[in-house]
Design goal:
Blueprint: E1 3-7, H1 12-24, E2 27-35, H2 40-59, E3 63-73, H3 85-96, E4 100-104, H4 117-131, E5 134-138, H5 146-155, H6 179-194, E6 215-226
Parallel strand pairs: 1-2, 1-4, 2-3, 4-5
Antiparallel strand pairs: 3-6
Helix pairs in contact: 1-5, 3-4, 5-6
Length: about 230
């Protein structure tokens, strides 16, 4: 039997994917990749919104089987070299997935994945062949723009169940200056424009993109079934 798994960080994209999946299946399996060596406040913020979301859907009668996959950065990548997250998460997810499964990712139309989708398809096809697996990748937000995702989250009243900031402040508020915070502001601004409000919501700022280092799996935790 084909098993469906949603990759869930706790951000806008993955939370919308998980919510939509719950509308089709009362019981859903979700996996979360956690970088153990990054700012612990970010991990805590993501953990908190995931826990709040699980409590919300529990009251609605849904079941989430949630698995945490801890990842550890390694200091073996030369300085100045960056790795696209999808190049690690996609093959790693296929490697860990059951023999017959469908993996749901929240990549939207502007994510880097699409620039290399043909190569990813070749890698995944070869990987499945070697491992004798039947793993399908699903991208329900492929044609979504970020402002559309945020709009849907707002309409569904799920804003307090998502987190995107890379560097939370001491009071666990978004910093407002990291790349995800900037992207959120831009998306909110576009949403306002499209709804007839042309008042600017933000000042022009420079975006500093943090490098992503190589990682390896160190521990897999099963948080159990929430009913």
């Amino acid at each position: 039997m084909n098993k469906r798994i949603v990759i869930w960080s706790g951000g806008y994209d993955s939370t919308l994917c998980l919510w939509n999946e719950l509308q089709k299946n009362k019981q859903v399996e979700a996996w979360s990749f956690v970088w153990t060596s990054i700012d612990p406040s970010k991990n805590l913020a993501e953990h908190n919104v995931r826990e709040k979301f699980k409590k919300k859907v529990k009251k609605l009668g849904y079941i989430i089987n949630h698995k945490i996959i801890n990842l550890r950065h390694e200091d073996i990548i030369p300085e100045g070299y960056s790795v696209m997250q999808a190049s690690m998460f996609v093959p790693l997810t296929v490697f860990l997935a059951p023999l017959d499964s469908t993996i749901v990712f929240g990549f939207h139309w502007k994510d880097d994945y699409w620039a290399f989708s043909e190569r990813f398809n070749e890698v995944i096809k070869s990987q499945c062949s070697v491992m004798n697996k039947n793993v399908e990748l699903e991208f329900p937000l492929r044609n979504y723009k970020k402002w559309e995702i945020i709009r849907d989250i707002k309409v569904l009243k799920l804003e307090k169940y998502v987190w995107t900031c890379e560097f939370p402040l001491h009071n666990m508020k978004p910093c407002g200056n990291c790349e995800p915070c900037i992207n959120k502001k831009l998306a909110l601004y576009e949403n306002k424009i499209r709804n007839g409000n042309n008042k600017p919501m933000m000042k022009t700022v420079d975006i500093e993109v943090k490098e992503v280092s190589y990682c390896s799996v160190t521990k897999i935790e099963d948080e159990g079934t929430y009913v």
